[in-house]
Amino acid sequence: MFAICSAGLAPAIALLSYFYLKDRVTEPIPLIIRTFISGALLVFPIMFIQYVLTSEAMINNNFIHSFFFGAFFEEFFKWFIFMFAIFRHPEFNNHYDGIVYAVSISLGFASLENVLYLITNGIEYAFLRAFFPVSSHALFGVIMGFYLGKAKHMHSRKKWNMFRAFLIPFLLHGIYNYILLTVTSNWIFYIIPFMIFLWYVALHRAKVANQAVSIKK
Fold first, then answer.
1. What's the maximum distance between 2 C-alpha atoms anywhere in the chain?
2. Apex 155 CA angle, 152 and 160, nearest 5
3. Does this model's pTM top 0.90?
């Protein structure tokens, strides 16, 4: 069990540390821990909702399962936790902070989801899970946090940026799910280019947010 928990948590902690250390003005560790735990606690209500919907709706449609039973609820609840716990918090005081806190929430969710998956399916999946599901949650978090930071600190098109903070991760997450559900062979040739694209977009957003912090200082 210790090995599974370590393998499940390690990639999330590594990714969170990476984005945390890129922050020019580091955030308080207790608040990072609280947002991480909040993200992890989302796993249980989301799993319950998804179980009820998939068992009751009896809809055998990959598009609906990918975008609405999966991506919609996961990204909406992560967005909601951010809006409820962080958006008006005094420590959320520059653009890049949005990325740090959104990644923390996303990786809290991804870490517990990953541990539960490894308990059920075996530790041999840890390597692939680190590179794909866990990393993708972090990157969706970067994009969400970028637009929430923009909504809070750029003072232009606030509501539109708050909406984009949910919409863009939801669409990207849905595409990711749809690839995995519909491509039954050679899926790696589809998912790797998609992950490269996600990394490019996320790192570019992180760079822009950090530059905004420098200009503000």
1. 54
2. 75
3. yes
Domain boundaries, the chain: 2-216
Phi first, then psi, for residue 165 (nearest 5°) are: -60, -30
48 Cβ contact list (under 8 Å, min separation 6): none
Structure-token match 């992180």, residue found? 206
- On the 0-12 / 13-18 / 19+ scale of CB atoms within 10 A, 58 is exposed
pLDDT for 214 beyond 90: no
DSSP state letter for 14 = H
CA dihedral angle for residue 148, residue 47, residue 5, residue 99, rounded to 10 degrees: 0
Helices 73-85, 29-41: axis angle to 10 degrees equals 150
Q: What is the pLDDT of residues 142-193, one digit of tens each?
A: 999 999 999 998 777 899 999 999 999 999 999 999 999 998 888 889 999 9
Q: Which of 15, 178, 145 is nearest to 75 (CA)?
A: 145
